[in-house]
Amino acid sequence: MDAQLNCETCGATFHQYSLKQKYCSATCRNKALYANRTRQLAKAEQLFSIAEELARSEERVKQLEAQLKDLKDEALRAIIQQLATQPTPSRYHIELRKMSITQVLDQPYRDYYLDHRGNKTISTDTIYLSTYSNDGALLSEQEIKGNDELLYLMERHNITGIELSAGL
Fold this sequence. Notes:
Blueprint: E1 3-6, E2 13-16, H1 26-85, E3 91-103, E4 113-114, E5 120-132, E6 138-144, H2 148-156, E7 161-165
Antiparallel strand pairs: 1-2, 3-5, 3-7, 4-5, 5-6
C-alpha cells in the first residue's frame, strides 16, 4: 500500500507505507503529540478553574441563603412588634341609627311618607359596630347587617346603643 498523503503537522506530501502513518517524519509526529498534550493540559487547567469557580459559587449561595434567612427573621420580628403595638379593642358599642332619605326621583316605594315639603321620604334603620381602645380612642366603625327582627326589637324597646367590654 503506497499512497500519497499530506502530513497532518506540516502539510508536506509523503508516501504512506502503513495505515497508521499520518506524519512525514518523527519530528512532525513529536510536534503533533506535544500540541495534543498541550491542548489536554489547557483543558485540565480550565476544568480546575471551573471547579474553583463552582466552589466559590456554592459558598456565595450559602451566604445568600443565610442573609435571606436573617432578613425573613427580621421581617417576622418587625411584623410581630408592629402587631404588638397596635391597640386591641377593649370596648364595643352597637348603635341603632335612624335615617330619613328623601326620594327625589319617582321610584316606587311601598313604605314612604310625605315630609313637610311634600317629598316622598323613607325611613331606614342601620346598626353600626364601633370598637374603642383602652384609652377611649375610636379604632374602627362599620355598618353591620342587621336582620329585621333585631331592628324591630331595638326600635320597640327603645334601645339605641349597647356597650360591650372585652373580658380580660
